[in-house]
């Protein structure tokens, strides 16, 4: 169960639960040359969660992730991993965290195997164990047969898969992925989704940053919506949809130019060839519409309950559309 | 750190641009400079254009005497104007004309004039020609004197004693069996191209930063100092390999004497630390790859010129020689030539070797000071 206090503050916390808390982030602030990149970001994660960071470019997702991985330091605030403060125990970062950056950070002139060998060694994996792990992650990525090929000969999707594999060699407990599917084909995207689901099933906690709503819906069971350096809302996906999604009906009638006045409808807006009618009394409005259709012999093309979408949640929470 | 070293060595091995800059180019330069300067210490390589307008026995004998010392290129008697045009165009520096009446004049015991038409702008080329002709002229004078003295009744011994110079020059080699152009060219080109490693180094560091690889490596176990040293060592090894290949090329292709291999190895090690240390410092202070390229060119070619890598330092003006003392290239060339040409050992070259290490150390200190800022700039 997650408690949130949306809008009022970005200091949102998961309620304590019997499941182990793996990560506790408190009051992170970061400023780049007078631009405040993070403003009081607070959240915590339980082990085994698949957590999505949703927000436009510049929202502060990457900055948060780079602080979590020790690449940059926050101006203030703290990050605890398994109860250990990261700033005083930097080795914990590399021991427990696997980081997949937004860019494809691989050596183009080296083979996939050589790249994985290098990153495995930088995480402290050596010898037979490293060889075995390389075989395993190459199998996971479906690129075992391309192990000896130069990365420069790979497609964008293949590179993305190896980019993820490089962060898995030391069996991290927390995998942080910063927009790992940018610019790839659907096949590779599906492969990556399946890899992430499999890792999550194996108990790896996932933090997944994206500006694609559908990726969050498919992969994450908990979501934080970020904008302008703040967490605007956070919680389980279903809960966010319930809390911020519209109660609305969509009506489309052939030849109807204008809707008659309707009781209990709080707002009406034109969408496509029909109207979205927001209401707190769905059944009553729906019955009324059916009566009107029968009375006026409307040629009804569509009369449906609008399913709450994350896009709508984002719009409600941030007041803007999700931008690229 | 070992992981970074191995990875870097693999990348350097696959970098064709570096191979061209570090090995192919210096070999081409050695071959080119070797051909131009090869045998320049041998006077038979000096050539002189001669026009014999007299065509007498005496003129032919005179030409033969010149030919024993220089390479004579004889031109037809009517070609004087063409030859003078060629001098003006800079194709050669002089032409010697033996005018009609040269043989007759000699027979009559008169002074027989020859004319040396010179390019006044080619003093360096003219100097040995003038000296050789002057020597031949002296020989003629001695022959004339000798004949006169013998005719006056002096014995042969008395004549020799009379003509003997009061000053005798003894030629005593200081230590080397020989010193020729290749002893200048091979170490010179090696030292010059060692400093081109700085471009490769700067490029690698900027690539790491630009592609986000440095940022990613920072999320692993690798500490900043391990990263720096891990990136540096492969370049030191590369320069050592570069020097070994170039000196081996000089040895096997041109018969370059390598001297004390232990001392040579020590200088090569110090040179590689100096070149890569400066490269390291440069990579951490310049704003971008373009600036690194320009500064490397300046250090490599400017240093080569002033440091005596192209022409021996002692041939340059004194103030240039003095500036050269502040450059690592001068000390590298100085110690390498001492080993190759003067049979120096480790005891003789430790001073210049230490100076090279100091240059490397300065670069390393700059890199260490700038490292935190470099790492910070890599994440944005």
Automatic annotation (TrEMBL), chain A:
Protein name listed in UniProt: ABC transporter
Gene3D superfamilies: P-loop containing nucleotide triphosphate hydrolases
Chain coiled-coil ranges: none
Molecular function GO labels: ATP binding; ATP hydrolysis activity
SUPFAM superfamilies attached to this UniProt entry: P-loop containing nucleoside triphosphate hydrolases
Domain ABC transporter: 23-253
Pfam families reported for this sequence: ABC_tran (PF00005), DrrA1-3_C (PF13732)
Matching InterPro entries: AAA+_ATPase, ABC_transporter-like_ATP-bd, ABC_transporter-like_CS, DrrA1/2-like_C, P-loop_NTPase
TrEMBL record, chain B:
Topological type in the membrane: Multi-pass membrane protein
Transmembrane segments: 20-39, 185-206, 227-249, 261-285, 292-311, 349-369
Domain spans labelled ABC-2 type transporter transmembrane: 17-368
GO cellular component, one term: plasma membrane
Metal-binding as UniProt keyword: no
Claim: Membrane is one of the keywords in the record: yes
Name of protein: ABC transporter permease
Protein species of origin: Paenibacillus pini JCM 16418
Classification of source organism: Bacteria, Bacillati, Bacillota, Bacilli, Bacillales
């Amino acid at each position: 169960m997650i408690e949130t206090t949306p809008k009022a503050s970005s200091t949102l916390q998961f309620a304590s639960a019997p499941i182990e808390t793996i990560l506790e982030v408190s009051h992170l602030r970061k400023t780049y040359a007078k631009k405040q990149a993070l403003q009081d970001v607070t959240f915590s994660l339980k082990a085994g969660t698949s957590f999505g960071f949703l927000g436009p470019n510049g929202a502060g997702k990457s900055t948060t992730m780079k602080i979590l991985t020790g690449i940059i330091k926050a101006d203030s605030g703290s990050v605890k991993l398994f109860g250990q403060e990261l700033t005083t125990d930097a080795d914990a970062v590399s021991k427990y965290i696997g980081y997949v950056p937004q860019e494809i950070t691989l050596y183009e002139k080296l083979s996939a195997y050589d790249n994985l060998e290098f990153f495995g060694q930088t995480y402290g994996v050596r010898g037979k164990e490293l060889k075995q792990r390389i075989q395993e992650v190459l199998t996971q990525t479906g690129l075992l047969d391309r192990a000896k090929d130069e990365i420069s000969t790979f497609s964008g999707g293949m590179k993305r898969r190896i980019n993820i594999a490089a962060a898995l060699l030391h069996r991290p407990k927390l995998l942080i992925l910063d927009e790992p599917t940018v610019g790839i084909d659907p096949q590779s995207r599906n492969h990556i989704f399946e890899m992430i689901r499999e890792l999550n099933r194996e108990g790896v906690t996932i933090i997944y940053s994206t500006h694609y709503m559908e990726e969050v819906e498919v992969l994450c069971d908990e979501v934080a919506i970020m904008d302008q350096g703040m967490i605007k809302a956070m919680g389980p996906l279903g809960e966010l949809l319930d809390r911020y999604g519209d109660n609305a009906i969509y009506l489309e009638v052939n030849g109807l130019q204008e809707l008659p006045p309707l009781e209990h409808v709080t707002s009406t807006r034109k969408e496509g060839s029909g109207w979205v009618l927001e209401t707190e009394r769905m059944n009553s409005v729906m019955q009324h519409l059916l009566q009107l259709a029968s009375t006026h012999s409307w040629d009804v093309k569509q009369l449906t309950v609008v399913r709450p979408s994350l896009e709508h949640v984002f719009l409600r929470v941030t007041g803007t559309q999700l931008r690229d | 750190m070992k992981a970074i070293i191995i990875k870097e060595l693999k990348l350097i091995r696959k970098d064709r641009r570096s191979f061209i800059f570090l090995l192919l180019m210096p070999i081409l330069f050695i071959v080119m400079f070797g051909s131009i300067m090869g045998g320049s210490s041998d006077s038979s390589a000096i050539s002189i254009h001669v026009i014999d307008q007299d065509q007498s026995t005496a003129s032919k004998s005179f030409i033969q005497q010149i030919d024993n010392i220089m390479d004579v290129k004889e031109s037809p008697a009517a070609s004087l104007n063409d030859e003078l045009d060629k001098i003006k165009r800079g194709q050669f520096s002089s032409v010697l004309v033996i005018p009609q009446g040269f043989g007759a004049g000699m027979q009559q015991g008169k002074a027989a004039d020859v004319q040396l038409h010179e390019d006044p702008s080619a003093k360096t080329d003219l100097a040995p020609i003038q000296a050789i002709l002057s020597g031949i002229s002296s020989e003629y004078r001695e022959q004339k004197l000798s004949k006169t003295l013998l005719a006056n009744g002096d014995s042969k011994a008395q004549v020799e004693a009379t003509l003997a110079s009061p000053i005798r020059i003894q030629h005593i080699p200081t230590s080397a069996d020989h010193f020729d152009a290749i002893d200048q060219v091979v170490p010179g080109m090696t030292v010059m191209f060692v400093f081109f490693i700085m471009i490769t180094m700067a490029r690698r560091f900027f690539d790491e930063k630009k592609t986000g690889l440095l940022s990613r490596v920072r999320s692993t176990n690798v500490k900043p100092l391990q990263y720096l040293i891990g990136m540096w060592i492969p370049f030191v090894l590369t320069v050592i390999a570069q020097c070994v290949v170039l000196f081996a090329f000089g040895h096997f292709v041109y018969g370059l004497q390598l001297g004390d291999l232990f001392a040579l190895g020590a200088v090569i090690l110090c040179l590689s630390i100096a070149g890569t240390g400066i490269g390291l410092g440069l990579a951490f202070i310049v704003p971008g790859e373009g600036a690194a390229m320009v500064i490397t060119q300046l250090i490599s070619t400017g240093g080569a010129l002033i440091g005596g890598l192209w022409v021996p330092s002692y041939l340059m003006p004194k103030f240039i020689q003095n500036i050269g003392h502040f450059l690592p290239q001068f000390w590298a060339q100085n110690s390498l030539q001492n080993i190759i040409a003067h049979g120096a050992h480790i005891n003789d070259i430790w001073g210049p070797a230490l100076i090279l290490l100091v240059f490397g150390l300065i670069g390393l200190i700059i890199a260490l000071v700038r490292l935190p800022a470099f790492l910070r700039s890599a994440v944005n």
